[in-house]
């Protein structure tokens, strides 16, 4: 009887041992499968990260190249603008001098004529003609005289060098001009030098 009981106990123990080994084997297989799947997922993730890194690297290179091109274009634009400004300035001076050369020629002729003949009326007529030519040249260049005598004093256009009291004229009225002022459009080239009343 004891033998049979021992036999049953041994069989139970053997059964439990088998069950434990079986459970351990299954767990081990599951761990192996899990590790294999983790390795596969990790490799996929690494591959995806590498692809993203390559894309970002290409994008950075494109931005860098674009920046270099833009800087080169801006530098060319800046150089071109400086040359254009110099050319415009040179053209403006050339146009102004061209207009005034005719007047200089006539002044030289007037000097030569004075050396040959000393008649004051002819000299006066010649000087008046030269002055008219000057005014015509200024007009072609867009230069205007600033109106002064009889006008209200404007510090933007006039430079008051004297002040008098005169009840016959309105307050802040220009009564005398010592030196003419000139302007181009709204830009004053030279202020009029004036005497202001009241």
Rg calculated over all Cα atoms:
51 Å
Q: Determine the mean pLDDT.
A: 80
Helix-strand pattern, N to C?
HHEEEEEE
User: How many β-strand runs?
Assistant: 6
Percentage beta strand: 15-25%
Which structural class should the secondary elements be placed in?
A: alpha+beta
**Total of DSSP H or I helical runs spanning 4+ residues:** 2
Concise description?
By secondary structure, the protein is of the alpha+beta class. It has 2 domains: 46-141, GrpE nucleotide exchange factor, coiled-coil domain (Hemagglutinin Ectodomain, Chain B); 144-198, Head domain of nucleotide exchange factor GrpE (Nucleotide Exchange Factor Grpe, Chain A, domain 2, Roll). The chain is built from 2 helices and 6 strands, in the order H-H-E-E-E-E-E-E.
Write the layout of secondary structure elements.
Layout: H1 2-116, H2 120-141, E1 143-145, E2 158-164, E3 173-179, E4 182-184, E5 187-190, E6 192-197
Parallel strand pairs: 2-6
Antiparallel strand pairs: 1-4, 3-6, 4-5
Can you walk me through this structure?
- The protein is an alpha+beta fold and 198 residues long.
- The chain folds into two domains: 46-141, GrpE nucleotide exchange factor, coiled-coil domain (Hemagglutinin Ectodomain, Chain B); 144-198, Head domain of nucleotide exchange factor GrpE (Nucleotide Exchange Factor Grpe, Chain A, domain 2).
- It contains two helices and six strands.
- The chain has a three-stranded antiparallel sheet with strand order 1-4-5. Strands 2-6-3 form a three-stranded mixed sheet, with no helix packed on it.
- It is elongated.
């Amino acid at each position: 009887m004891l033998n049979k009981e021992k036999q049953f106990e041994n069989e139970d123990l053997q059964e439990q041992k088998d069950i434990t080994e079986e459970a351990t084997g299954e767990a081990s297989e599951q761990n192996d499968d899990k590790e294999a799947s983790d390795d596969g997922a990790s490799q996929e993730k690494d591959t995806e990260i590498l692809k993203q890194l390559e894309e970002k690297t290409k994008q950075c290179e494109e931005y860098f190249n674009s920046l270099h091109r833009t800087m080169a274009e801006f530098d060319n634009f800046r150089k071109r603008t400086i040359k254009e400004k110099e050319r415009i300035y040179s053209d403006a001076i050339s146009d102004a001098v061209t207009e005034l050369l005719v007047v200089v020629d006539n002044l030289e002729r007037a000097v030569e004529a004075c050396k040959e003949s000393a008649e004051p009326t002819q000299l006066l007529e010649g000087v008046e003609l030269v002055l008219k030519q000057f005014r015509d040249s200024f007009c072609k260049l867009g230069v205007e005289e600033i109106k002064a005598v009889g006008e209200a004093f404007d510090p933007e256009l006039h430079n008051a060098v004297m002040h008098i009291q005169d009840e016959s004229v309105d307050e802040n009225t220009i009564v005398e001009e010592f030196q003419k002022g000139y302007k181009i459009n709204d830009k004053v080239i030279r202020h009029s030098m004036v005497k202001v009343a009241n």
